[in-house]
Amino acid sequence: MPIFSESLRTDVLTWLETHVPEARRHHILRVEAMARQLAADHGVDQERAAWAGVLHDLAKCFQPARLLAMARAAGLPLDPVDEANPHLLHAEVGAIVARDRFGVTDSQVLAAIANHTLGRPGMDALSCVVFLADSLEPGRGDSPQLRRLRQLSHQNLVAAVAQTCDESIRKLIDKHRLIHPRTVLTRNWFWQASRQSTLLPSAWLSA
């Protein structure tokens, strides 16, 4: 992947100015900052975490038809929930944009971008960092539950992913929304992993 430099970061932010609104750009910068801090707390590569944070929402504002077309062209597996709510594809399509527009080839960074919305069973620590930063950055609110999850995210990535999935599922149920199967699979994997540390070593190679 390209070296994470200020000039390349500026190129990305300039591109974002014409593709996402200002409020979304502020969110991206908060995710970048929180991802870097979580990475430092958990011994994950901070540069990769920051880079994935800057890039994670490249396709956030793409129209549904474009998201579906790009996903199909890339051969991504589509669940009926994706078809009903193509916005959920923005993470995986964003990884395609990061690769094709900005030359990102680092497989862990691309995975972290692709996994930041729905998670993925067995995803590595870098993906967990970006997933949590996206869900818990300060702009998301200041409820007691969010404060608790933020504190947990700095202490235990595995438990924080499991409990953040729980919170997301609760909100979707309260709103009578569809729940993507991958969110449930992610939740179950990380709940089990939080109780069986033998699941972690092969999946959590951050180098």
From TrEMBL:
Q: What is the lineage of its organism?
A: Bacteria, Bacillati, Cyanobacteriota, Cyanophyceae, Nodosilineales
Question: Which CDD domains does the entry mention?
Answer: HDc
The record's EC number reads 3.6.1.41
Kind of enzyme, top EC level?
hydrolase
Q: Which domain of life is it from?
A: Bacteria
Q: What is the source species?
A: Halomicronema hongdechloris C2206
State the reactions this protein catalyses: P(1),P(4)-bis(5'-adenosyl) tetraphosphate + H2O = 2 ADP + 2 H(+)
Q: Name one Pfam family in it.
A: HD
A molecular function annotated in GO for this UniProt entry is: nucleotide binding
PROSITE patterns, per database record: HD (PS51831)
- Name of the featured protein: bis(5'-nucleosyl)-tetraphosphatase (symmetrical)
Under the heading InterPro entries, the entry gives: Diverse_Catalytic_Enzymes, HD/PDEase_dom, HD_domain, YqeK
Domain (HD) spans 24-139
| Alphabetic keyword roster | Hydrolase, Iron, Metal-binding, Nucleotide-binding
Concerning NCBIfam families, the annotation shows:
bis(5'-nucleosyl)-tetraphosphatase (symmetrical) YqeK (TIGR00488)
